[in-house]
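Let us work through a complete example step by step.
Step 1: write down the sequence.
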Amino acid sequence: MSETTTHYDAIIIGFGKGGKTLAATLAARGQSVALVEKSARMYGGTCINVACIPTKSLVHRAAQSAVAGGTWEERQERYAQAIARKEVLTATLRGKNYHKVADAPTATVIDGTASFVDARHVAIAREDGTLVIEGEKVFINTGSRPFVPPIPGLADSRNVFVSETLLDLETLPRELAIIGGGYIGLKFASVYANFGSHVSIVADGARFLPREDEQVAGVVLESLRSRGIDVLLGARTLSVRDEDERTALSLEVDGEKTELVADAVLVATGRRPNVEGLALEKAGVELTERGAVRVDEHLRTTAPGVWAMGDVVGGLQFTYVSLDDFRIVASDVLGDGSRTTKNRGAVPYSVFIDPPFSRVGLSEGQALAEGYAIKVATLPAAAIPKANVLEKPVGLLKAVIDADTDLILGAHLFCEESHETINLVKLAMDAHVPYTTLRDSIYTHPTMTEALNDLFAAVK
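Step 2: predict the structure and record it as tokens.
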């Protein structure tokens, strides 16, 4: 390498939640840091720019629009305003995240596409040429990207979007087809249905939400269909073709051929780790069988001095997991290494449909499969006073308890404000608090959290 190669204490590839937090932390300790990001529109990472924040902004505005009702033209105008508001919000947050790192005296943000030369040197392709930098430590935080299946005509259609690009669509589609029945597809289905679109979900599996508790998944499916969302189970997309201004999907549903025509098509068939072009093999960084960066419990890769964080390592793809990955990496490089992926506790998640579905821990079926003797509790959302105050008496709450210890093994909350309540259940699980503590606790009234009194009182 040239003697003029710039040296840093740390090189961080990717401006996601874990990377930006690590960059700010290391810079605050006086370490020299280079944070490399290939797109100036992705400062702050996926969550801020094309996922959590903009979609939750649309979730909020869509719920307001559903209440307001009105003509198609009025709904269309509210949708356009929501997209414009989303742009302002993400631009503001993007700027704040940039300055959080760039304003640190020892941190440098470098725009460009990074690839490894070896485990200590990274080449950055820029508009003005290639820059090579050297780092004592290197951290990979490149996130994930949507997976687009090789369906004939899909890549060529002018009306096909992935989750990131659909967020830029300024015209509300009257008919929206979603290929994929997972969490991302459900969230967008709920948002666009609330704005006024007619939504069809094309799910290839025979069972709806197969990873979730079957009883709760059934209630979620019933709720979606009651809102006018068509959910086609056991459906396979054979091909896609544009016809005038619209797009036709050729489907096979339960062995029979049919066709679905839509103004817009969302491909929501999962995401894959962003490793393409990184030349990881030059650094000695290995991948898993599923194409993620292979790491140990400290998030160390197979190359000494190289770590990885966030979606690129596979597993649950949530910004708060990436933040916890930062804690694990920081513990390893700045502390005693005591925090690991094995002691991070239960990881909750929420799907922001209407009402939201949230979960932590095991389902009833998983608990039985793992050999637990269990007790189960269920509570209809309609029994919760606050749900009726909010005029959202839809849903079901379910908890799974270890019959031998009275500890909570899992909870599934399909109800209004479940995304808030689930965090309390997660805390109780991590603290090994028996379910009776939540059952007998005093909660403010009227709140959704007080439903835990009745839910856990129903354990049997």
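Step 3: interpret the result. The chain has 14 helices and 22 strands.
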